[in-house]
Amino acid sequence: IRTERGSGAWCPRQQISSEIVEWLQIDFDMDMVVTAVETQGRFDGGRGLEYAPGYMLEYWRESLGTWARYKDGKQDEVMAGNSDTQSTVFRTLDGGIVARNLRVIPVSEVTRTVCMRIELYGCSYRDQILSYVIPEGDIIDGLNLKDISYDGITNSSGYLVKGLGKLYDGAVGMDNFERYPEKWIGWNREKHGATITIEVLFAKKKIINAILFHVSNFLKSGAQVWQILH
How far is CA 196 from CA 30, 38, 160, 174, 191, in A? Predict the structure, then answer.
């Protein structure tokens, strides 16, 4: 970003289109938390004309076991890119992602040549949590209270497994979950019964001396703190 080296940017050999996919893959030597991406087109002293109007992110880590595609809080996969070759575009990822390998996939609705300069922001992932397992959340009164950022899979029993999501994104939901349902996970008691099980998998044995929960007690909308915790 903001540098001129070689031909000025990464340019895939083929033109991209809705049918032709190219990507730039970054391999880390450890799991990393990626929190933002900054992009720029190819300027090359005024000779460059290429940029990517949009792109997607795919990522892999050992505990995930497969490639996952990043989605923002509105479930959009395509991130807005550049509109010229000089200006930079900075995009913050909702909650960030944990990745050992990351692919930046330029996208375009028409066949075109693209070039990109890319900078990633984040830090090394030093926590011991591999994943958590929960029942899939519900859509309640038109509010989507599912764990939409969860990057694992849904098994045959309706549980989210092998991934990380809202419960580990560092974001605290606003008190009024009706205004910001994308920040919450909610379960319908009539569907799931009186018990919800949350399982957390660690890379090593841990001594747990405290657990902090952030829950909604917005009674007028039917949300209530549980009575017993085991």
Answer: 33, 39, 13, 22, 11
